Queue: 3 jobs
Job 1
Amino acid sequence: MEENKDMKEYWKKNVALIRNLLIIWASVSYGVVIIFGDFFSKIDFFGVNVGFWFAHQGSIITFVCIVAYYAWRLDRLDKEYGVEE
Amino acid sequence: MSVEILTLIFVMITFGIYAYIGWWAKAVDTKSFYVAGNDIPTIANGAAIAADWMSAASFISMAGLIAFLGYDGTVYLMGWTGGYVLLALLLAPYLRKFGRFTVPDFIGDRFYSNKARAVAAIATIFVSLTYVAGQMRGVGIVFSRYLGVNIELGVVIGMGLIMFFAVIGGMKGITWTQVAQFVILIVAFIVPAVAISLKLTGIPVPQFAMTFSDIAVKLGEAQIEAGLKEYILPFQNMSKLNVFMMTMALMVGTAGLPHVITRFYTVKTVKSARWSAVWALLFISILYTTAPALGMFSQYNIIDTIHNSPVEEMDQVEWVGKWESTGLLTLDDKNSDGSYQVSGIKDENEVGIDKDIIVLSTPEVAGLSPVIIALVAAGGLAAALSTAAGLLLAMSSAVSHDLYYKIFNRNATEKQRLRVARIMIFVSVLAAGYFGINPPGFVGEVVALAFGIAAASLFPAIFLGIFDKRHNREGATAGIITGLSFTVIMLVLMKSVPILGTETPIIESFLGIDATGIGIIGMIIHFVVGFTVSRSTSEPPAEIQEMIESIRIPKGSQAPQGDH
């Protein structure tokens, strides 16, 4: 039963991590670029504006960081709970 | 050496490489045919996913589409990359642990229902067939534009090549060919982009040039002066609601596309499935962050060169004449004032720019050598062929593995199954080629259908199958059927002009949502119906619940339980 409890905890931590990362994913893409796009496009960012930069560059870079962080974090979580291969 | 001969040499060399790889990687059993023997290294799988994903449309048309949409072009940029976050976090690792061959495999086993398997197989076939017709057409167009052969012959040559490496090599041959194709397509995309960036801004990195130079401001001014919309302000070309819905539909649709999901079965471990999603998105982002810069530069360059320029002067410019002759650039001095004007008003606009010209003309507009032009042609072919191959395999495995073996003939031997798989690839290539040569009028429209269907049927079913242990056969079946029928009916009604041949669309939009975003409503219906039905029917059998527990834990994936 001990192992079972550990697995529940592992899964809980995993789901919490996924939820947090998806909140970042949605805030950048749907938040900054779309819902608050009118607001962020009024703020200058070098030759463009913040909204436009996220729409055409920043969101994609954020996505790469999210998946990389998840893969890295899960490698550690797997080891912690002894479920790595 | 002329451009045609150089192009021919480039195309022959790259085709030789693909054919050699196909022969070297020949598949000997169903496991290597469907999932490359779970033996593909992580980075190679990342590159193969990237090549699989980036189609002729990404390579040739996307930069142009973005150039016309400005800020709102983000629907493609975020829509076609953001889905990988969903894939990497929600689906890929668990499907790898599940460790079978196809997407319908998961749906059929998880919901202990061959009906669900059959519906998933049909959705897979439909989505892939829609997509692949466009790819074969893309191959034909590149051939005709650069080598002067007609489109039909171009499609046939492409078919022959795909047949060779896909039928012999199966997933293994396709994967390694895609790795080579990724390298070729990305180099072919980056080199001209760097060159035009240097020429216009003096900065060699396109991503930096679009942000830190004054090119965006200059383009904005040129657009306003010509009476076009603002480039860097939001919602000029699409409503906020539709930008939102379409972005989400493309993201969720991406995460539900069978030819992409299948790729995660091909690696050794769960860890490797996670990391191959990282590599894939990194590789894809190279093209997807360059494309908006390229779109911006080309749009500026073309407006700047042609707007208010005297007719005689333009007739002297070589690339203007060449692209006019292909019909992708149309110039017409309507008001006879001796010069061409770009205008936002249709009747006054004298310069027609096709979206495809943005990428295809860049090397010439930027004054690059014919070698680069030949490279772009080879890159476009690589993009189209790699995507087509992945789709054909997804389609044929849905027929040969899910419908034939799992439903009709459970006693088929390994040899029989491999033979059926090869025959199905062969048939799929013929079908794809047929639609490439005789494209149904609505091919462009049905891509929205492909994403809508994937978003409303496959993604929610797989997601709930992993994260909701209580989700059962009844819930999944009800969810798939309601989500799918709503989406298909809405799309047919909104696109009734090309599909049913009516004079005007039967309905314009659903609560202000266009066809491109309607899959999201279908997805919501799927979630709501699926959840409600599953809670009011009996819970899934104990062995299914155990299976769900086991796919959530990475340990033990190296011995897939799949029968092979």
Job 2
Amino acid sequence: MSTGSTAAWLRRVVLGVPYLWLAVFFLLPFLIVLKISLAEAIIAMPPYSAVVEWAGDRLRFTATLENFAFLLSDRLYGIAYLNSLRVAAVATFCALVIGYPMAYAIARAPAELRSVLLMLVVVPSWTSFLIRVYAWIGLLAGNGHINNLLTGLGLVAEPLQLLRTDFAVYVGIVYTYLPFMVLPLYTSIARLDWSLAEAALDLGATPWQCFRRVILPLTRGGILAGCLLVFIPATGEFVIPELLGGADTLMIGKVLWQEFFNNRDWPIASAVAIVLLTLLLVPIALFYRYQMPGSSSAAAGLLGAAAGGEARR
Amino acid sequence: MSRRWQWLVLAGGLSFLWLPIVVLMVYSFNESRLVTVWAGFSTRWYGELFRDRQLIEAAWLSLRVAVLSASSALVLGTMAAVALTRYGPFRGRAVFGALLTAPLVMPEIITGLSLLLLFVALSPFVARGMLTLWIAHTTFATAYVTVVVATRLAEFDRTLEEAALDLGATPFRTFRDVTLPVIAPALLSAWLLAFTLSIDDLVISSFVTGPGASTLPIVIFSSVRLGVSPKVNALATLLVLAIVLGAVASWLAMRRASTRYRAVVVAGPK
């Protein structure tokens, strides 16, 4: 075999193997979810009717939109979707308000400190997600650390109900997703051309004007990336509302889980997933559209910065 | 923002990130069964932890799945990263890129459900358990590996590879002798990242696993649902320590390698 054909063969393998893997284990499963969302629930294993069947001489399609009609008719689902979007949006906003000053401060810190500070932000996100949510149970519980502190100081007479509330869910989301907000923000702030800010200040802008009219617009890419990296997964979050939220904290991730594991209604669970994906289509498309070129996507910024430990300009 | 404000903000943010973890770790040494009331120093929960057979078995399963899937994700992700950064435009590149990034943003609950439905459809051939855990973890970890390795490949000085090719090295040899040594630290961090993602995963694993194959997060989750327990604190402390040590080690390796790379490639050989 000549080297030329070996090279072509190698190229095909290098591209083909991961492509095939993702097609089979990522793309194909979504098509199956779509298919099952059009099926009927039956008592069997697997518990759904066939959508495409070989009826002796031809293929027979028996798709139904009943699952989607059911999602529309039962208000519970609508409320759960709206509630998830609202909780994710509020938590994303809080994470931005906390994360932006942090990212700004790291970007302005002395160069030799920056990589250490970044590590301090990233490492918690590498420790177990479940453990970090669990940590807040101990903090927020009725006999937890925060209530002990508050009653100990005499600030409140009775322990506050903190755990099993929407507030706890917000805290949980902001806490676990904050690093995903800070890193893309940091990447975009560190790339900023500071002479523009200096020019604005020299020309008489107040620091606030300079921030609002110069720095904020220039870091829009990082803001968008950070917000999407928090908002998209937070909308489908299951663990946080399950462990920190109350019985009345209705979020769609929890609903999907219950439909699947408790009610064993696979078609409805699939329909819930399809609608959730449709709702997230716009944010996901935005995420792809605005992936920063070069050290590219926000995720790359996140992991690259984390792995490299320093800003690349 | 003035200097002082910046430091204040940073100190506040970092304590928000670290205090809950530190409190959790401190209370793993608490004598009392009540997690939140201090009753003296004790290591008894660590003893109980190591006597809990269910937890040990789950940890062992998680460890095996994590090593396997991090390794396979490293191979797949590195191939994908090479294809993305070195092959120029090819047909289906946009779809390929989208497929590679999708697991980074997709809500886990959707990925988990869809993979399980695939495995059910394949059920005569695929037994749910360690095999399906391995496939699922490899799939999402590949996305992260690709991003880390592609970032490193993108900033890599391509003239070195071109020189090797011009001097008659085969593409494989060029990769092995030129590219691999330079991206090795990135490969190490990518592997560690894939490993931590795998060992940490709860939602996707809950969907795809079969009877008898409970990973560590699945066991922790079912115990945490019933309330806090000092044993979980002890376990968490060990996990956090392992991850912090791993992170610091890979960071140091990365830094040393990047200094060396700069010294040799940027400044030129002595």
Job 3
Amino acid sequence: MMKMMKRFSVFFFVLMLLSAAGMFGAERGEAASTADKLTQTKQVTQAKQPKQNQASWGQDEPLVYVEHGLNLISAEKQAELTRKLEALNAKYGVHVGIHIVKNLPAGAANLEQEAKRFVESGVYNEGTNGSMVLYITMSNRKYYIATGNYMNRRITSATGIPYIKDEIVPALKDNEFDRAAELFVDAAEKELAYYEEEGEPYDPANEFSICALLIGLIGAACVGFCVCAYLVSCMSNVSFAGQADEYLDRDSFELTFSEDTYLYTTTTVTPKSKGKDDDDSSSSSSDRGSTGGGGGSF
Amino acid sequence: MAEKTVSYKCPNCSGPLEFQPGKETITCEYCGTELEVETVKKLFEKEQERAAQAEEAEKTKWDTKSVGSEWESGETDNFRKFTCSSCGAEIVSDENTMATECCYCGNPTMIPSRFDGMMRPDFIIPFKKTKQDAVNALKEFYKGKILLPGAFTENNRVEHIQAMYVPFWLFDSKVRMNASFKAEDDNIIDTPDAIITKTSVYDADREGTMAFEKVPHDGSRKLDDDYTQSIEPFDYSELVEFNAGYLAGYLADKYDVDADEAAKYTEERVGQTALDELQATVTGYTRVDCKSQSLYQEDSNVSYAMAPVWILTTRYEDKPYTFMMNGQTGKFVGRLPYSKTKAALYGAVPAIVSLPVFYYIAKWLLS
């Protein structure tokens, strides 16, 4: 009897263990399923919820963010730029902002990828017609202007971003971040306004250039002068005869002495242009997909 | 008073004789008598001698009279007056005129005394082109000159068309030239980082001989050398022994640039061509520059010839314009006036057309 009771107790214990293990496994599977569903939802909604491990930004990310302690843009200027950006974003249905940090957040691969991820995250997704951010990391003095949510249809990586870069880089190099930020906002507004009016992205090449006109005028004047000089020269066929070629008896020519003596060799080395200066490196990406942009060092 | 000039008159009708371009004979326009050039020459040789003597006598007389006269010696040195043997009118010419025509009766007149003290021409190239050819050539020359002022062709007419035998020196020379050239050969090596140019420098010495035949230089100081050089070349295959009969009816000058002076200019031309020939033998190099050169005349010969030239003169806005035509080949040269307004307009049109092109190229380069 005792032996039977002992066997029953062992069986019951094993059964309990199996039941417990089964329940634990079921709960775990359910949790995993929920997590998968959440991931899918996140992908569909373009990560509406900010990740908790990405510091310093979220639903309340300011339009002009300067990491505490950098003191690059005065509070008054930040307020002024924020007002301008709010008006700009409201007017064109976009979300344009400035984000200046000392270092990239932990886990970020590089500035370009982080800026592109950033511009399609959080409040930047509120821009129905697109989003754009000027992302600056001060530790390595690099910047990247990323466009997201199909902003690249309005501000293209090929023409629009280089224009903004040309506007802001000199100020960044001079450490005039107030001015650089303002120029960024102005350039963005100019390009967005252009798209609204013309229905096509802004291209600086289409703008009238005084410098090009001056060069063109010089070139055209040279053409006019050459044509004029040629026509004037046609008015006379009187010329000085400096040679007597027509009177040379070709058969009479005889070369009586010919000697070539090697003297020396000189070597000239002309370095090839590297094309891009390391200190002013820049990059741009294509406009395939929803993101685009370009950046460099300053 | 002995005649100082000789009129080439037809022995048959006394009409003026004139050599017709393209013909071997002299034909009287009035009675049609045809005379060989040689015959005319012999016919009037004695008359020329007599006229020359008379002129010499008159010259001495004239020089005596000029003492204390109102003419200054410098002015009168260039004047000579003659009496036309046909109409008796006084003809004034400069000291170099050998043949001309009477401005009153148009009679062709020779001034034989001018042949004295100078070499007799060895050759002459007879005229082949007529006055009408010269006029046509001028009209042809106007064509395509879009800057030509309208008033020049509309209201302007050629003031003088003159056929003239111009004295030319013809230089035959066999020359030897040696020259030293700096020859450079580039070897360009393209590496990823730089372009390396290795230039090998050589000293190339060359010497050669060559012959030049009948290089011309005009012997008239009055004529612009640029013009007489521009109407070159003459076809020397039609060069004939000089005969004064060919001068009949044409203005002819004797030389006032002697052979020595002309030789200096010719030597420069010959030297340049000789140098070019030697330089052409320095081959296989990227660049060749002459460092030094020497020209030696090994053999030379100079002959004196009369070459046919048509000279056309006109004036436009008080400026004289001269045109010249080779009386043998018809090569026509000259300088035409141009309208500054037209020049500005024709310059502005391509400038305006090319402006957008340059503008967009500049924009593209600046972007």
